[in-house]
Specification:
This protein is of the alpha/beta class. It contains 43 helices and 28 strands. A 7-stranded parallel β-sheet has the order 4-3-2-5-6-9-13, sandwiched between helices. Strands 18-17-16-19-20-22-26 form a 7-stranded parallel β-sheet, sandwiched between helices. The protein has a two-stranded antiparallel ribbon with strand order 1-8. Helix 2 crosses helix 13. One of its GO terms (cellular component) is peroxisome. Keywords: Lipid biosynthesis, Lipid metabolism, Membrane, NADP, Oxidoreductase, Transmembrane, Transmembrane helix.
């Protein structure tokens, strides 16, 4: 057993006081868990009562809700009504503007991105770590990850804060509930060698094994939550005692006493949740000891204590600087014993707030804490029987069933906190008492937290009403969600109507995806006109490039199935552009585009991986910026789809449907300034440092374009569509159609040519891929969905309402994914020759051994060299070496993507698919999970073979 660490009261100089108001004046505060129960009250109190400079809230992305959206929802809650009632609208907006949402991911070692980290380290002075997982039934390793590791990462970040004054680590009084008497000290007695060893125990275990091991490790502790909070305290004492940090231990935190609204509560955990049956007039008996006296604290008292503790921590740390020996981490047991009430008296107290006298009298019979478990079990069985009967009756009438769910929830909560109804603790609270004595009269009026002065009968006058109000809010919220779901189901996307007589502007229409998109729009949707922005290329005019595009076999379906194909193809209008110029399109087309354009699909991009960084930024970012700056003035603009790539954030292992604004070197503008005055050689030397872990300048430029859109064009009806690897078509307009040999398609050529090539990479990596016709269909639907979302989310840009960021579609699917090796074998299995199919299993592989890849490429080059020598001898054109060099270049360029595995969220894509009408889903299918892989790869091989033959024919025609 390790020795305990004493953090008892420090010596206080006479007449020394805590100047709390001065401590927070013009201070910058960082809060985690700011959107939770305690966190909301803390933020509201700081804004309303203290002249803080700024409050940073570390907020995680939750589902599809961004941190900014979660912050906005928090401000719309009733807890901020007091501020809105005492201040004018302008003052409220100014006050709310002090709160800044910072996206955090506590699963990563760096919890915030580099730009936010620098900002926090330069500005933050006070830290409140309130965030925690309060689930009692969590597996221990998950509880440790949330309650210990996340705190560890936050305090590691705090070490770099230059002006840090104080850190308040919010723990719980019950972190040492296996002791009868709890002192204000850290008990360093975590079993099994400490938290680091416990983490090691759980690695590689199955879920069932983790559950069994959790029970063994926590021992006489009641649950993983309190055990993990104990581990967090020990971690703080061992690793961060040099920081100005203190541990604040609140007991059971219940609804507010006086601030900001008497009785306010926004959750039903712990003691508050168990009082819900009393308020609802339900019968419920809980097992426990009626004479036990729990420690309870109103949330406004708790927050006042936390605010004062931060000032006290700073004062103690300042005194330590002149003290002869360092003081250990201070601990604040926020408990008051004199005024505590027993569990047996709680029903009577809660019933004070019931308005009906009969309900007040009956509640004392219906609700009790009894020491006989058999009675509670019997009553629980009867309640569940009643709930099941009621649900069956509701189901008979087609109503929503919820009785069993509610009874189960209350029963689970009662079981989870049973331990605390059967035990009682004593405690020391010298540090809290000392804080109370040091408060000035003005601070004491502002920060009331003496629990011994609470009149519990007065407190409970508003307790029941607070629960009732929250129940009403939750019911209203559920009704609103159900209505929204019904509206969403009834308001399916009407793609055909959206595109009827629409004018569409397409860039990159002569490319691989662009051709399929244009053909699909013409053949399947009744558009009025399609403007194609086309550059002059290699002295080939815009008109000639348009003519070449229409001669492609991809348009044969239109020519063969449409009655008047000429009239349909005449809807295409080619416009010459030069995105290297500020005025990239000239009159009269400039005015025509502005007046007519309704839908924009921006596909154009330079996809060369070996292009200089400045050139690729000019093509993929500056050109995009010029297009959107121009089109934002279009009066009839409905929707813009910016086609990016899934790999725009390939330096992350997990990619969410959001824009990651973490460009290094001060952002895009600063990078352009840096590159502007450098020579080509200097730019090439600096590029790897700028792009960091990105594999090439192309994906880096696509990331920069996304961030540029977020920063400058968020007010437009714009979305970002991220396709992964795009491969030959599945069904439309021709199965297996392809017109280029880039990426995976180019690497598949040796498979068809029966060449011996082993590619270096991870055979078990699963590349996300989509057929080009599915990709085009997804873009078409995304344009309509973008318009609908923008119409629903169109708001005034103000502090009261924050405009949502552009919608992001990660166009990737996670079902039936194939590894690189399986992808290769699927292609080889569809080769026409039986011998070729068998030999391909030896000839073509993805290997982890780079030396094997080098050997096969060396043999390929040797074969190409000998082949060209023979061709030269007979006076024939030599092209084998050129093809081998191209294949080697392509293999090297795509090596990064064969070596890594990514996970992603695709909620927006799934939602979009669910909103399709059945009649339109038949011709706008884009769900890759529904593809028949055997059928697809048969088309893949046939289509690629046709493209190779077309290329050979074109070569003969040129000769």
């Amino acid at each position: 057993m390790h020795a305990t660490v004493d953090t008892g009261p420090a010596v206080v100089p006479p007449n020394d006081q805590l100047n709390v108001v001065d401590f927070y004046r013009n201070a910058t505060v960082l809060v985690t868990g700011g959107t939770g129960f305690i966190g909301k009250v803390l933020v509201e109190k700081l804004l309303r009562c203290f002249e803080v400079k700024q409050i940073f809230l570390l907020i995680r992305r939750k589902g599809s809700a961004s941190p900014a959206e979660r912050l906005q929802r928090m401000f719309e809650g009733p807890i901020f009504d007091t501020i809105r009632s005492i201040k004018c609208e302008a003052a409220v907006q100014k006050l709310f503007a002090k709160v800044v949402a910072v996206e955090a991911s506590f699963e990563a070692p760096d919890i915030v991105d580099e730009i936010d980290r620098i900002k926090l380290c330069n500005e933050v002075q006070i830290v409140f770590h309130v965030m925690a997982s309060i689930r009692f039934d969590e597996v221990l390793d998950a509880a440790i990850a949330m309650n210990v590791t996340s705190a560890q990462r936050l305090y590691a970040l705090s070490r770099a804060m230059q002006n840090l004054r104080a850190i308040v680590h919010v723990s719980t009084f019950y972190s040492n509930c296996n002791r009868e008497h709890i002192e204000e000290r850290i008990y360093d007695d975590v079993p099994f060698g400490g938290v680091d060893h416990i983490r090691d125990f759980f690695r590689g275990l199955e879920p069932s094994e983790k559950t069994r091991l959790s029970q063994l490790i926590i021992g006489d502790m009641p649950n993983s939550y309190v055990f993990s909070k104990k581990c967090a305290e020990v971690m703080v004492g061992r690793e961060f005692s040099e920081l100005p940090i203190g541990i604040f231990r609140p007991p059971i935190v219940i609804s507010g006493y006086r601030e900001p609204v008497p009785g306010w509560v926004d959750c039903f955990h712990g003691a508050t949740g168990l009082c819900v049956p009393i308020v609802l007039g339900k019968t419920w008996w809980y097992y426990g000891k009626p004479e036990m006296k729990p420690f309870m604290s109103p949330v406004d008292h708790t927050v006042a204590g936390m605010i004062t503790a931060a000032c006290d921590i700073y004062r103690r740390k300042s005194n330590i600087l002149v003290a002869p020996a360092p003081e250990p981490v201070p601990v604040y047991n926020f408990t008051f014993e004199k005024n505590a009430f027993a569990y047996g008296d709680q029903v009577e107290l809660v019933s004070i707030g019931l308005r009906n006298p009969l309900d007040r009298w009956l509640s004392r019979i219906k609700n009790r804490v009894v020491p006989w478990k058999i009675l509670t079990k019997l009553l629980m069985w009867l309640m569940m029987l009643q709930a099941r009967v009621a649900d069956e009756i509701l189901a008979w009438f087609g109503r929503r069933r919820s009785n069993v769910r509610v009874v189960s929830a209350i029963s689970n909560l009662a079981d989870a906190v049973e331990y605390f109804r059967c035990h009682m603790w004593s405690s020391d609270n010298g540090n809290v008492r000392r804080m109370l004595s040091l408060l000035s009269p003005d601070d004491a009026r502002l920060l009331e937290f003496d629990g011994d002065r609470i009149d519990w009968r007065d407190y409970h006058k508003h307790f029941a009403d607070g629960i009732t109000q929250e129940l009403m809010r939750k019911n209203a919220s559920r009704r609103q969600q159900r209505q929204m779901k019904r509206k969403a189901k009834s308001r399916l996307l009407d793609i055909s109507e959206f595109y009827r007589d629409a004018v569409v502007l397409v860039t990159g229409g002569t490319g691989f995806i662009g051709k399929v998109l244009v053909e699909k729009l013409l053949r399947s949707l009744n558009v009025k006109r399609i403007y194609l922005l086309i550059r002059e290329k290699r002295n080939v005019s815009t008109a000639d490039r348009m003519k070449e595009m229409l001669e492609d076999p991809i348009f044969d379906t239109i020519r063969g199935t449409v009655v008047n194909p000429t009239a349909l193809l005449d809807k295409l209008v080619a416009i010459e552009v030069d995105f290297t110029a500020e005025e990239f399109v000239k009159e009269p087309f400039k005015t025509v585009l502005l007046n007519e354009t309704q839908i924009v699909v921006h596909l154009m991009a330079n996809v060369r991986f070996d292009l200089g960084l400045q050139n690729v930024l000019e093509a993929n970012v500056t050109g995009t910026e010029r297009l959107y700056s121009f089109i934002r003035n279009a009066p009839h603009l409905k929707s813009i789809v910016h086609v990016s790539t899934f790999y725009s954030n390939c330096d992350r292992s997990h990619v969410d449907e959001c824009i990651y604004d973490d460009i290094s070197f001060g952002g895009l503008d600063n990078i352009k300034t840096i590159l502007k005055h450098l020579s080509g050689t200097e730019q090439d030397a600096l590029t790897p440092t700028i792009i960091g872990q990105m594999p090439n300048s192309y994906v880096f430029s696509k990331k920069c374009a996304e961030v540029m859109i977020l920063q400058r064009f968020s007010e437009l009806p714009i979305s970002i569509f991220r396709p992964p690897i795009v491969v030959p078509s599945y069904q439309e307009p021709e199965p297996g159609w392809v017109d280029g040999l880039q990426g995976v398609t180019g690497l598949s050529v040796p498979l068809l040519k029966q060449k011996l090539v082993w590619y270096y990479g991870d055979p078990d990596a699963c590349p996300p891929w989509v057929p080009v016709d599915y990709c085009a269909a997804g873009i078409i639907v995304a344009a309509c969905d973008t318009y609908e979302r923008h119409q629903r989310g169109k708001v005034m840009a103000s502090f009261d309402r924050i405009a949502p960021p552009p919608t992001v579609y990660n166009y990737c699917f996670d079902q039936h994914r194939q590894t690189w090796q399986q992808f290769t074998r699927c292609i080889c299995s569809e080769l026409p020759s039986f011998i070729g199919r068998k030999l391909s299993l030896l000839r073509n592989h993805v290997t982890r051994w780079r030396i094997i890849s080098w050997i096969t490429f060396a043999l390929l080059f040797l074969q190409a060299y000998l082949g060209d020598a023979v061709l030269k001898l007979f006076g024939k054109p030599q092209r084998n070496m050129r093809i081998a060099v191209m294949l080697q270049t392509l293999a090297d360029a795509s090596e990064f993507f064969r070596c890594y595995i990514w996970t992603m969220r695709n909620d927006n894509v799934k939602r979009m698919r669910s909103l399709l009408k059945e009649s339109e889903a038949s011709f706008l299918e884009f769900d890759v999970d529904r593809i028949d892989h055997k059928e697809y790869f048969r088309s893949y091989v046939e289509g690629l073979s046709k493209e190779l033959k077309r290329r050979e024919q074109r070569a003969r025609n040129r000769k």
